[in-house]
Amino acid sequence: MSGGVDSSVAAAMLVEQGYDVVGATMKLFCHDDDLPDRPCCSLDSVNDARRVCQSLGVPHYVLNLESAFGRDVVENFVNEYASGRTPIPCVRCNTFTKFRDLVLKADGIDAKWIATGHYARTIDGELHRGVDHSKDQSYFLWGIDRSVLGRMLLPVGSQTKAETRATAHKLGLEVVAEKQESQDICFVPDGDHTKIIRQRLGADAPALADGPFVLSNGSRVGTHGGFARFTIGQRRGLPGGFREPMFVVAIRPDDRAVVIGPREELLGRGVVARSVNWLVDAPRVGDRVSLQVRHRAPAAAAEIIRLDGAEIELALDEPVAAITPGQSLVIYDGERVLGGGLIERAAGRRTPLPVRAA
Amino acid sequence: MPEPIYLDHAATTPVRAEVLEAMLPFYGPKFGNPSSVHRWGRDARTALDEARERVAHCLRATADEICFTSGGTEADNIAILGTWRARRSEGRRGIVTTPVEHKAVLETVHQAAHEGADERICRMSRDGVVDVESFSALLGTDTSIASAMWVNNEIGTIQPIPDLASAAKASGALFHTDAVQAFGKIAIDSRAIPFDVLSISGHKIGAPKGIGAVFIRRGTVIEPLFHGGAQDRGRRPGTENVAAVIGFARAAELAVAEREEECSRLQAMRTKLEEAILARVPDAIIHGRGAGLRAPHILNVSVPGVESESMLMALDLRGIGCSAGSACQSGSVSPSHVLHAIGVTPDVAGAAIRMSIGSLTTDAAIQRVSEVFPALVEKARGVARVS
Questions:
Q1: CA A9 – CA B122 distance, rounded (Å)
Q2: Which residue on chain A is closest to B305 by alpha carbon?
Q3: Does the annotation count B263 as an active-site position?
Q4: Cα torsion angle, A152, A153, A158, A160, sign
Q5: A108 touching B, CB under 8 A?
Q6: Which of A50, A53, A64 to mutate to test the interface with B (most CBs of B within 10 A)?
Q7: Model confidence, pTM
Q8: What ipTM was estimated for this complex?
Q9: pLDDT, tens digit, for every residue of B311-345?
C-alpha cells in the first residue's frame, strides 16, 4: 500500500468482499530530509496507508525492503544507464520486490493472497490487461513468476480509475480519494535520474562524461554532456540546424556516442529481447502475437521468428518507432499477457541475427 | 482471538489507575499556573514542589536536584548538551560514551561533536556489557562528560555504573547515566553512586508520556536548552506540566516501593518464558544472557533464519505485541545498532525479537507466548524449507 488511491481502494474492496486483509507498505529507500512532498513513498504516504488501514479495521505494517530493493532495482537501474540502456525500475520492482520478496513476507504470516492496486486482471491464473486501457499496468508485470499469478488479487484492475476514485469516496477514504498519481520513479523524486547515477558511480562516470553526437554516417555534429541523459526517440537536448526533426536513434557506450537521425532511422521492423519470462506455456515460432515495446504504446502485430531459450526475436507487420534497449517487450494475445523480455535491440525484418551477449 | 498480550513494556506502559487519579484534579479545579501569585497558582505550586520532593526522595536526592522534562530524550539532551556547552570554555572537549546507548544519547553526542566535541566510543563485551577498561582508557583530563546507560533498552544488560561513574569522576569528567530503563528495576541512590546527571522517564513506569526528569547534582553547571522563563531554576523554562509531574511523582513512588516484589515476579516470568523458548527452540540465542546481570523485564531472542519482521507481524496477528531493533520514523524495522555493537552478525541481529514484560503481564500470558512463539518458529522454518 503506497498510500495512494489505487492500493487503498484495493484494500477496502477486499475488506468488503470478506477477505482477512493485512496492509503492508514497503520501505524501499532512505527518505532524505529534502525529499519534496510526493504522492508515493514519502513518510506522509506511509502515514496515509496506515490511516486507511486503521479506518478499514485491518492491521498495517511497514516492511523494510530497502537493501533488497537497492540491490535488485536501484543498482540495476544505474548499471543499465551506464551501459547506454533505458531501464524500467518498476518492472524489476514488480518482479523481485512486490511479487517475490513481499510474497515471502506474505508466506511468513500465512497469507494466501497478495493484492496490489495495479490496473491489470488475473483470470484463471492468467494475466490480462486492466479494464481501463488508459491506466493499464500489465506492461510492467511480465517478469513475475508464473506461479504467483494464482495468488494475485488486483481488485481495481476490473474498473476504471474514475470508478476507483468514486469507490474511495463511497467508502469514506477521503484521505486518498483525490490524490494525484506519481509519474516519476519513486527513488528519483525530482525526475533527474542522473543524480543517483552520479551518487552511485561518481561524477566522473563515463555515462555522465561529455561525448560526441554523431550521425549514422559517422560524422560528428556536436558534444553532449553524458549519454545517460538520453534515451532512444528523445528530441530534447539535441543539436539543431537540421532540415528535419532529429531523434536519438542509438546510444553507443563504447565511444560514449549518441547517434541522432531523422524519424525513419528510428523505425524498427523487428525486435530482439532477452531474459524472456512466460506467464503462459511458451508460444512457438510462427505464432502471431501483438506486442508493446513501451508503456502506453499501441499494440503492434508481430510474428515470433526465433525462440532460443530466454531470447526471442519477432518480426513486426508494420515498423515501430523507438525500440529502446532496456525497455520491456511485452507480448500479448489480445487482452492476455503471454510474457515479455528485456529489449536487446531493434532488428531487421525476418533476418534473425545472433544476440549480442548482455 | 484470545485476549491480546502486550509484551512491549520497554517501549511504554499504560498509565496506572493511581497515577491517573492523582493527576485528574490538576486537569480540573487545580488547573493553576504554578508561577501565578493567586490561590490557583499557589495550589499548583505547592503540589509541584511536593512532587519534586517525592521524585527526589526516590533517588535519595534533594528537590533542587530534580528538573522536570518532557521525557527521557529531553533529559538526555539537557544532560549532554547542557554540560558540554557549559564546560567547553574550560577546554574540555572529550565526550566518552558507549555504542549501545539510546539514540537520544548517541545523536546528542553527535550534535556536541558538530559543536566541536571529540566523540569517543568505548568497546563492549559480546554479552552486552561495557568494557570498563576501554571506557576508562578513553577518559582523560580533557574529558568533559562521560555517559553510559544503566540498563540497555534492547537487551536489558545492566552496566557497571558504579565503576564507570567512579572512573569518570577520577578523571575530572562529569558522569551521566540514562536510567530510563533502570528506574523501578534497580535501586538508585544518588548519595552512594557518584553520577552527576541522570535521566528518567515517566511513561516507562506507569506515568503518562511527555514527562520525565533529569537529576542534576548540586553544583553541576548546565546551560539550558530552552530560553524564556525562570521555571525550574532557569534550567528548563516553560510552564510546568503540573498534572503530568504529579502523575510522575506518584508512579515513581509506586515503582520504588514495589520494586523488589515486582522485579522478582518479572524475573520468574522471564525465566519461565526463556526456558520454554529454549526448550522448544534449542538454537535460539538470548542476547545478553551471558552478562550475568540483566534487568528482569527484557528478553531479546534471535532464532537464526527466522527474520524479525515477519515474526513481529505473525505475533501481532495472533495478538502478541513485541518489538525488534529500533523503529524508524516510517515505522519499519531497522537493524539494531546495539546488537551490531556487541558483535552479533547481521543475520542473527535481523532475527531479534524483544519481549518486554511488566505490569500487564500475567502467568497466563507467559504460558501462551511460550506456546505460540515456538510454534511460529517451527512454522516459519517449515516455510523457509519449502521455498
A1: 51
A2: A108
A3: no
A4: negative
A5: yes
A6: A64
A7: 0.89
A8: 0.86
A9: 999 999 999 999 986 666 666 777 899 999 999 99
